[in-house]
Amino acid sequence: MLRGKDVQEIEELKRQGLSIRAISRLTGYDRKTISRYLVYPEGAPVYGPRAKQRANFEAFQPYLQERMQAGVWNARVLLRELRERDAEGIAARLRELSSKAGTDARRLRTAHCAKSSRSQ
Description:
This protein is mainly α. It folds into two domains: 4-39; 58-105. Helix content is 64%, strand content 0%. It contains six helices and no strands. The longest helix is centred in the C-terminal third of the chain and has 29 residues, at 91-119. The protein starts with a helix and ends with a helix.
């Protein structure tokens, strides 16, 4: 990041009619840096946090639960099926749900296996 004095120097050289390449040679800064500070004198552009995309997840929840009860817990498979149904923007939520369902299913299988081995 350039300091205020450096930015003022770049702006002054530009006002004097020097090209960006000439300013770059004089100051030692890259041409892209010079261009960026001429466009945004206060420094590099500041990007805020992205707005969260709303996914209409609730509309597909019954379908997902039906598929998970059928034994499909792989998030990639479920996401592919949902994309075929034009359901975009729910990948993260789907991974979260699939992970939780897979963990719950593993717990049930482990408990069932432990119970079966005790009864023998």
